[in-house]
Amino acid sequence: MTDAPQMNAGDISFWPILKIDYPTDADKIAALLPPGIDPSEGANVHLSIYCVPVPDVPEYGCVVTVDADYRGQQGVYTLGYGIDQESAVFISRDMNGQPKYPAEIDYYLMGDKVNARVCHQNYTFVEYAGEKTGEVQEAAQWTELEWWVKNSRAVGGAEKAYDFPPHVVQVKSVYQPVHVENLEGDLLLRESPWDPIAEALPIRGAVSARLQQAIPTTREITLEGPLDPDAYWPFSDTISGSRWPGSMGGPKRTR
């Protein structure tokens, strides 16, 4: 008998989040961090695939974060939120610097089986298929620090000019765990010029995965300190609304 929380059929309010973690190369993470966001003691990639109401309709999404420090605090730097709800993309990016962009996400559970697939610009770049292996206990409460960058390049595109220079945005969330189940399965990263996770953040060790249900007790989004605008300039050209390095909003041109 499971003590998993029960939901009304079809309810979108409390789906478990598929959490996947794996180690990668420290230098690969360092290459993606703008000056002012520092490599952390760990070198892990974190994927969160979800369906949550935003604000009251389902948003399917895939978050890609990496271990990183800011001002000596350990947390994660966010490379992208691929989501299927266009209405939340631009307001989230423009208001808070949240790196959202449109993507297609398939995520579903059937009995003990879990499946997820994430696609952007017709490239499937993440796939996961797993099976539940049992319930686990998590700490009574934990805090997560996540960092985004808010900036606006100058109208007209002048070199190294901004209408709003780059600033770190801190997201501090406190969670109360409700139910967690471990998974055993396979994570497949596919090559994609639009989401180059397979090349930029390759798997270098054991993959762990779980289904996590938790209640956010607090979530604070605050504007923190500025980043060096000149040093940040190479990081200001990204793919779509993500923080993957790009060229005029798309993949870097090879010729």
The third-level CATH topology of the domain at 17-139 and 178-214 is: Acetoacetate decarboxylase-like
The CATH superfamily of the domain at 17-139 and 178-214 is known as Acetoacetate decarboxylase-like
| The CATH architecture of the domain at 17-139 and 178-214 | Beta Barrel
> CATH first level of the domain at 17-139 and 178-214: which class?
Mainly Beta
Shape, per Cα inertia axes: globular
Q: How can the largest sheet be summarized?
A: 7 strands, mixed, barrel
* CA-atom Rg in angstroms: 18 Å
Element order: H for helix, E for strand? EHEEEEHEEEEEEHEH
N- to C-terminal distance: 59 Å
Count of individual helical segments? 4
Spatial order of the strands in the main sheet? 1-3-4-5-10-11-12
Beta strands, count: 12
Proportion in β-strands:
over 45%
Structural class: mainly beta
* Mean pLDDT over the residues: 93
Helix content: under 10%
Low-confidence stretches: none
How would you describe what is shown here?
The protein has 255 residues and is mostly beta strands. The chain has a domain at 17-139 and 178-214: Acetoacetate decarboxylase-like (Beta Barrel), CATH 2.40.400.10. The chain is built from 4 helices and 12 strands, in the order βαββββαββββββαβα. It has helices spanning 26-32, 89-96, 197-200, 229-232; strands spanning 17-23, 38-39, 44-53, 58-70, 73-83, 100-102, 104-110, 113-120, 123-136, 142-153, 162-189, 208-226. Strands 1-3-4-5-10-11-12 form a 7-stranded mixed β-barrel. Strand 7 and strand 8 (113-120) form a beta hairpin. The longest helix has 8 residues, at 89-96.
